[in-house]
Design goal:
Order of helices and strands: HEHEHEEHHEHEHHEEEHEHHHH
Distance between the termini: 23 Å
Number of domains: 3
Largest sheet: 6 strands, mixed
Radius of gyration: 24 Å
Number of strands: 10
């Protein structure tokens, strides 16, 4: 199964000489696209008409921008493949005669196992693509929650009650003690300290930024969450009979489930401290965690902006810092009506020299 880095992520802080001040949870939301899953739909001959129609609609949506789900679709008629072709396609090793849905996880899961597989029906397809718990979680994150904590109940009322109380205490401690890193710049404040800020520290969306944690409950017996639960939590963890706690942040990214029996308030606080701290390693693969399947068009909801030399927000900022009414009119005339502040001129040169190069540094490839 997937490589799990549980709540011990608090001790795995990535080192960096020049840390971006944007918190990890917000950096992940705005700048880390979710890794794509791969859905194989197999059959011997034509698919059921209703399922075929649903798959056509899904494929059309995947070709749109922004993409509504982190998924790639491949429909395979096994009767048209040679044995060599079947062997060459990962995920087909255990395919039977009946039409099947096979969900292949992203490479970041670091596993050769499938995330989920089942009969190819319209019902299973719908359960695979979305569920109420994922909708609720995405809604929390897009409204500004630092992390959405899912409690997978055990069915034992006493154990579940203790787990909820433990999580509430840990989140209360984090909410009272943690602060947004100093130096984060909201987009509307870009023109106030242009000479001293690092544009990597400017937020890319207008979603409220605060230390805010939410929790939600997932009943492991809920049929609407059966498929989601199968790749949210490993079977071995479910068999313990203990409540499980799963933090989700960014665009549906998690550090993995942890048994409530092994948690403490300090461990919960440590995880929150990491997620709310400055993002010292901007490379996604350099940070703990892996992505889940979410039917959410993150880019459409975020309406985020990457600042370039031509961005209106930069031009407005340049106008503000370059205007100086104290200078003589003769000096103003030399620059077309506005004197140019040396810092503003230097920034403009850097921007223009890079053409359309992003002011925000793009994360380098891992490794």
């Amino acid at each position: 199964m997937k490589t799990v880095t549980a709540l011990t992520i608090s001790i795995l802080l990535a080192s960096g000489l020049f840390a971006c001040q944007v918190p990890v949870f917000r950096f992940a939301l705005e700048r880390w696209p979710a890794d794509n899953f791969r859905l194989l739909v197999t059959s011997h001959g034509p698919l059921d008409q209703a399922l075929g129609s649903e798959l056509e609609n899904l494929q059309q949506s995947l070709e749109a921008e922004p993409r509504p789900i982190n998924l790639e679709l491949e429909v395979i008629d096994l009767s048209t493949l040679t044995e060599a072709q079947r062997i060459s396609i990962p995920g087909l090793e255990n395919v039977g005669v009946e039409p099947s849905l096979i969900l292949i996880p992203p490479q970041s899961w670091q596993t050769e196992e499938t995330a989920w597989s089942g009969a190819a029906t319209t019902e299973n397809l719908a359960l695979l693509l979305d569920s109420p718990a994922r909708q609720q979680c995405a809604d929390h994150l897009l409204k500004g929650a630092s992390t959405a904590w899912i409690i997978v109940t055990s069915g034992d009322a006493e154990k579940d009650s203790r787990a909820k109380a433990l999580l509430a205490a840990g989140l209360a401690k984090a909410s009272s003690l943690l602060k947004i890193p100093k130096g984060v710049i909201r987009r509307e404040d870009l023109n106030k300290e242009l000479a001293t800020i690092d544009l990597d520290d400017v937020l890319r969306s207008d979603i409220p930024l605060s230390i805010s944690f939410v929790s939600q409950t997932l009943d492991r017996r809920d049929p609407a969450e059966a498929v989601f639960l199968s790749f949210l939590v490993e079977p071995e963890a479910l068999r313990t009979g203990e409540p499980l706690i799963v933090p989700i942040f960014g665009r549906g990214r998690t550090a993995g489930p942890v048994s409530a029996a092994g948690l403490t308030i300090d461990r919960i606080f440590g995880a929150c401290e990491y997620l709310c701290g400055a993002c010292s390693c901007q490379v996604k693969q350099g940070n703990p965690g892996y992505d889940l399947l979410f039917k959410t068009s993150w880019d459409a909801h975020l309406n985020s902006t990457i600042i370039t030399a031509e961005s209106e927000i930069v031009q407005q900022a340049l106008d503000v810092v370059s205007f100086s009414p104290d200078l003589p009119a003769s000096e103003s005339d030399q620059t077309g009506g506005l004197p140019i502040h040396p810092v503003a001129l230097g920034l403009a040169v850097v921007l223009l020299a890079g053409g359309a190069f992003f002011v925000f540094r793009k994360p380098a490839p891992a490794g």
